[in-house]
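Subject: Protein entry, chain in single-letter code together with its fold tokens

Area: Proteins and the way their chains fold up in space.

Attached in line: The record itself begins immediately under this heading.
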Amino acid sequence: MNIKKKIKSGAKSIAKALVKSLVPQSVMRQITGMRNLAYKNEGRKNHFLRYTLVLDKRSLTRDDDFVRQMDVIFHKMKINISTRFIYPFDSTTARALPVGYLNLTSMTPDFGKIIKTPLSEIENSLSQCRNASFKQTEVHMVIALRSLVNRITKMMEGKRSDSISSYIPNILERAPKTMEEALQKILFFHAVFYQAQHLHIGLGRLDKILLSYYKSDVENGTLTRASAKELIKEFCRTLNRDMKTKSVALQGDTGEYILLGGIDKNNVQVDNELTALFLEVVGELKLPTPKIILRVNDQTSHDIWQKAIDCISTGCGSPLLMNETLIMKNMIRFGYRKEDVSELGTSACWEPLIIGKSFDQNNSLRSIIAVKSVNDLIKGDKDTASFDSFNEEFKKCLYAQIVAGCHDLNLDCSPLFTLFMDDCIANEKDYSEGGARYAYHGMQVLSLPNAINSLLNIKKFVFESHLFSMQECAEAINSDYQGHEDMQEAFRTNPQQFGAEDATVISLTNELLNIISEAAKQCKINGAKVKIGISSPSFVDEGSKFGATLDGRKAGAPFNVHISPLSEKVGIKEVCDFAGKINYADNMLNGNVVDFILPHAFLKDPGKLEIILKDGMHNGIFELQLNVMDVATLKDALVHPDQHRDLIVRVWGFSAYFNDLPKEYKLYLIHRAETYAA
């Protein structure tokens, strides 16, 4: 290698090391190795260095560079015009994020409003803005969108002559006249949002949004229930087509959910024929994405409950059930406006927000590992004379953990979302910089069931029966239970377990939830108060790096997931009754999911299951996620993956093909299925 090449190579190495030190690994993983940047034709390979040069040499603001990149992408991206619906998303092309910034994820725009609002009307609103810089950026974003539509229109000339090809040229200006046009317009904007590197985009209340189009089409004879069902199937297949590219943490983790059911702003039930159709379609297709979230209340009809149970019984992992009555009440108390909460949606998986009005980022901080405080106290040889004194020390540590784990976020901008989210243009501010009505970001607590079971074991075996000493407990977890197998068995089989309808367990759980809530009240993220929840997606990753715990869990094993029992002795009815007695404070709005795996045999009596689920929701469950898994099928799929290519499983807040999961997830699902089948 000559001296010039050595110097050049050394400079590249230094530059790469600098970028690695500046860019969070989560951001690096989402961009690097995922897609190629639209600037690849300019000969630049390093996305982040290219972006730095754009900022430094052209002196563009982040907002202006966002628009410039999107304009380049719209002119260069590959677009497939041969499919029934046009979905302008290119998995080989992506926008580069600014160095050190987190991309905006997990939002749900108001597609009902988007498809009815002409872009020219938005332009008129922009013309009234006094902030020249803001107005210029947003006008350029409008121009970029028009250029994309013009490009697609030219591509279709002479090649298509169907209803979609005639609608595309007018898609930015004309409200849909048919259900097919409405689905096409939703898909157009959904694809554009993903192309802007905004991941986990929910689709919102499609049974409510599409009902008028469905009714009109049926009345004029252009659509039947059967043909509408085929339209919805093609809509879902289109969304699933780029599943692997869109996924963030694991294959299937796209955040694309369809919200069904619930009430509208006039307290009228939304449930309708389309609610049933979407549940039927998702159950029949059994695709990883999109998933269904069903808002339920005491007035949800028997027919919809049965459609939901039928869908769950297919093993597709949908729908997640949301107790909208409890959630909306807590959202109002927390700070969301009463007139807004009827448009309750979620952030990708289950974290509540307001559709079209929320900037809430709910999974941007590292999860708080609750059981860490238990282990720290045990290993620290804290001198405690009673369980009560130990528990008080634990609560102080957990409180401090939560406060210390909260920090501000350096977030991406979005001139694109700014056009379509409420209040942004009126406020003349970018969606992420004060434009959106709500910016209540969230934190998550992980391993709470492990912590509670550990505390229950300390109470029973150390302070009540005096069977083991604190020193022996420390030795057991330090040795990963080698030579202490008797202790591990005792800890695992303690009848007082998280999820059991036991007064002591419920009292301790509510004590700790109160501490979690009080700690979160002391926190602020980017100046706003914080939501917190006890459902975290990192139960496998964080568990793999953590030592043994006093619930009998060995080092490296996954933490317990969400609100689910660790024991086969706790059934679906008991855990539902338990969850109904948990006190969810007003700020505990960031996901509190009961997670349970149903054996196939349980589905022989759907009427009984409906009663259990309805009672659970009425009694105060926050959210409920059910999975149906057959142990023998999962074990066979582990050994013979080619024979189970289409096997779907629910992982945490999404569904995935079993074959696409890492082995540790497969083994964990098999373990849980075995436990609950016992």
